[in-house]
Amino acid sequence: xxxxxxxxxxxxxxxxxxxxxxxxxxxxxxxxxxxxxxxxxxxxxxxxxxxxxxxxxxxxxxxxxxxxxxxxxxxxxxxxxxxxxxxxxxxxxxxxxxxxxxxxxxxxxxxxxxxxxxxxxxxxxxxxxxxxxxxxxxxxxxxxxxxxxxxxxxxxxxxxxxxxxxxxxxxxxxxxxxxxxxxxxxxxxxxxxxxxxxxxxxxxxxxxxxxxxxxxxxxxxxxxxxxxxxxxxxxxxxxxxxxxxxxxxxxxxxxxxxxxxxxxxxxxxxxxxxxxxxxxxxxxxxxxx
Length: 289
What we know:
Blueprint: H1 2-19, E1 72-75, E2 77-78, E3 87-88, H2 90-102, E4 106-107, H3 110-119, E5 127-134, H4 138-150, E6 154-158, H5 172-179, E7 183-187, H6 200-218, E8 224-226, H7 234-243, E9 247-253, E10 265-269, H8 276-284
Parallel strand pairs: 1-5, 1-10, 2-3, 4-5, 5-6, 6-7, 8-9, 9-10
């Protein structure tokens, strides 16, 4: 089953480069937790504790119980290409973001997610994580304005060899601007490498090089990763740890849970064909793929 899924994602990725982008020359080589304030007797009513990382989240917010799963949404391109499931039309994407906003969802960062999964740091009950793979330029021209409109957080996993090289991919200047504005930039290897198909040495090479490039460009530590094609194995997880990553995401369907393993977290794939009803089900029901 995993082999079939891998083939599907390879096929979809190839379609995305040809169909979702404006360029046709792109070549991809596959190769301390916030704790509630303790008030001594006599009991004094606590003031709301505002979290800088999660706007609007305070001690009046409904808290998510510890040990639960969280929907991590997986997007790629915000554009239109008939028949291409990874190209989400702008109108549909905005409708989805508006639904999240209107229904009281909080977009949390990967750091928030990591702290919740590993340290039981409180997060809102209606938390959701928004992620994008690859780093298409429409993440800046189409997605970024919409997320700013709703004051939402998100993460883009970037293929570093394509930055500043191909017109349909993000530039380093765009990465810097978005990273400073609440759109976290993280690693997706150098050449969209399938870690399951390459040696341990090459795994470390692509993981270290992409990490080093992003850290130099953004002047921050890169902690998080998404597997191209969803391809990983025991060696890949070991390589991620050796390279200094803290958490990684697969393309396996479902909500993210500590039970998945912190280096093999699941995500909820959002397809261009998803109706509003399907989208609502995916973000409200952990058992919906």
